[in-house]
Amino acid sequence: MVFTKEVTLPSEEELTVQEVEVSTPGLRAASFHMGKACENVNNEFMLCRQECQDPRRCLNEGKAVTACSLDFFRKIKKNCAVEFTQFANCLDRSSADFSFKPCRKTQAVFDKCMLDNLKIERPYFGYFSEVKVHHTERPRPEVKKQEYLDMPRPVPDDLPLQPAKFGKRSLS
């Protein structure tokens, strides 16, 4: 990507946030519950990215997603640390691709702990594929009208028609 003098990049302080230091099995173990717990914040971020087409304008929404996930893992550590660790270790050691199939028993224990302590139910299969309407307080971005839309276009009647090469050409 090419930058010009007019482009302003965010400072190092604006970009620096505390990272979520969780391993791949841990992220995989908590993914469904975290997706449900941070759904609104994540949808707000994705809506901003889609509408603005400029990642610099969505830094605050991105920080909110990171803060939500950090808070989520703190709650897991406080309430369901043992169950979460057992499930993540099972995912890590049972298969090369972190498959859920060999770990359904430890998954059930973790899901029960999440429901009992944090009141977060594991979403049903296909929940994240459903179409949902996200309500936001952010104003709609201004849509710039393209200049080429105002240019005069030729009317089809003004164009000369060539005889059809392989059959009849009719305008009706």
Automatic annotation (TrEMBL):
UniProt-listed InterPro entries: CHCH, NDUFA8
PROSITE patterns: CHCH
Gene Ontology cellular-component annotations: mitochondrial inner membrane
Main location class: mitochondrion
Entry keyword annotation includes Electron transport: yes
Signal sequence, renumbered to the chain: none
A Pfam family annotated for this UniProt entry: CHCH
Start-end of Basic and acidic residues biased regions: 138-150
Compartment(s) of residence: Mitochondrion inner membrane
Region (Disordered): 138-172
Residues of the CHCH domain: 80-115
Keywords: Disulfide bond, Electron transport, Membrane, Mitochondrion, Mitochondrion inner membrane, Repeat, Respiratory chain, Transport
Keyword presence, Membrane: yes
Gene Ontology biological process: mitochondrial electron transport, NADH to ubiquinone
Functional note: Accessory subunit of the mitochondrial membrane respiratory chain NADH dehydrogenase (Complex I), that is believed not to be involved in catalysis. Complex I functions in the transfer of electrons from NADH to the respiratory chain. The immediate electron acceptor for the enzyme is believed to be ubiquinone.
Family: Belongs to the complex I NDUFA8 subunit family.
Protein name (Swiss-Prot/TrEMBL): NADH dehydrogenase [ubiquinone] 1 alpha subcomplex subunit 8
